[in-house]
Each structure stands twice: as structure tokens, then as C-alpha cells.
Amino acid sequence: MTADALSAAQAAFRDALIAHRLLIPMGVDGLYGRSGVFEDVIERFNLLVSRHGGNDGAEVMRFPPAINRRDFEDSGYLKSFPQLAGTIHSFMGNDRDHQALIETLLKKEDWTAGQKATQVVMTPAACYPLYPVLAARGKLPADGALVDVYSYCFRHEPSIDPARMQLFRQREYVRIGTADQVMAFRQLWVDRGTAIMSALGVPLEVDVANDPFFGRAGKMLAANQRDQTLKFELLIPITSREKPTACLSFNYHQDHFGHVWDIRTQDGGTAHTACVGFGVERIALALFKHHGFDVKAWPQAVRDQLWT
């Protein structure tokens, strides 16, 4: 598929979702409202995930879509993905600055020069607020930790592809412990995730992947990530069979976050971490793509999975 054909397919699917009132356009590529039907599919899918993982004893944490700026800086995200980061700025001036702001607005000119960075940054991935919280608790118990997190996330990559939103939600299970513990967890969820999505009747494949590291040095990081099989993705064709969309990811971070926040295992070693992430909007889009826009007409086997 050529780039033009791919763009046309993405635009056509986006327009169909809008025409069926599943997505609500907001005037910026990648920014949408969601209908009640769309949200119901997501809620049903989250319940399905909980039926598979809810008996594992995970601690549930829910975070807002913003994190402490210092924690964000410490995470190393800006070193690897500066092109995706979203900072939050605000007006912090005096009366004179306010008057200048009003005059700039009246002239239809750029008013953002007077904004200054706040102490919060948009969350880039649902698990990022978790690690400093765990570090503050002290050493992990002998069996490590398992946490269920869910959050809106932001990545600055405007696109006409409805599966590449700027604000989207991630549901994650995060495992923290020894290398053996977290690797066993990741394999468990590769198997579970494949079973969940297979039961929902969508075509899929699981493949080695890499994150979109920035710049020339990023190419080496991406190659290293693939060579060490640190990341797998469950791919589903949404707007292209040649370039399917990553809907689930299975990530082994090694001891990166353990080092950053000094998270320690019971024996004093640096903790390793792994996570499984569900891109819930992408999963809903995949279901609409392969089963149609009318959820009442979806195959009964699929409806039995979600509406039970």
C-alpha cells in the first residue's frame, strides 16, 4: 500500500466513525470525543480484561492524566521521546502581563509566549506515575508487586489515523520484582492477551517491536530493543493489512525504572519491571473495523465475551 493509499484508508475510516457518531471531531487531528456506544465497548472490554487478570491479586491504582514534572524528567522520557512529550504551561504574570495578553488576543497573534511551564506534565504512559510511588514505600515484598493501572495518556503525534490519537487511554498490569518474576509475568500476558483478542474474532499477530526512539542515536536504541526482544506487540489490521496497528504491548524494561527510582527487591537488588498495556481505543476501533459499526449486529460469540 502506498503512502497516499494508506492516508486515504485512514481518512475514510475516520470519516465513517464520525458519520456513525462513534467519534466526535474536535477540530484537531487525533483529538476526539467518544460516543456512549464507543465508551460502552471500552468499559465492556475493561471488564473482560479484569475477568482474566482480576484474580492475580493486583493492587489497583488510578492516576490523573498528568504527572509530577520532576518525576517525568527523572524517568528519561525526554532523552528518548522528546517529539512525543506534552508539557503543561500556564499564565503566571501580573496585571501588565494580563493586559498584554488581551491585546495579543485581540490582534489574533500568538499569545503563548507569555506562558510558563507548570510543575505538571502530561502522562506519556499509564505506568509512569507508579514507579516513584512504589519507591517511596521501601523494599518490595518477597513476591514483588503487581499493580493494575489505567489512565489517559498524551503523545504529540497528530494524525488523520483514528488509531493514532493524541489523547488516549492505557490499561496496564505492571509487574515489579526480580528478572525471573517479571519475565514469567510477561509471557503469561502474551498468552492471555492473544487468547482475549482471539476470542473477540479479530485477525492478529504477535511480533517483536521497538519504541519510536528519537534521532540517530534512537536508531541504535531501537535496534538494541529488538535484538534483546524487550518489546512485543499484538498487531491488528485496522486501516492497513500491510501495516497493522499495535493494540497490545508486552514490555520488559529490565532494571531501568528500578535504577531511576532506586526500587529494591527484598534481598536489596535493583528491581526489574515489565508491563502489559492495552490500548483500549485502538481495541474498540479494531472491533468496529472487523465487526461493523452496529454493536447489536456483532457476532454472537463476540457479544458473549463482552456483554455477559
Automatic annotation (TrEMBL):
Coiled coil: none annotated. GO terms for molecular function: ligase activity. Keywords: Ligase. It comes from the Bacteria. Its EC number is 6.2.1.n2. This is Amino acid--[acyl-carrier-protein] ligase. It comes from Vineibacter terrae. The lineage of its organism: Bacteria, Pseudomonadati, Pseudomonadota, Alphaproteobacteria, Hyphomicrobiales.
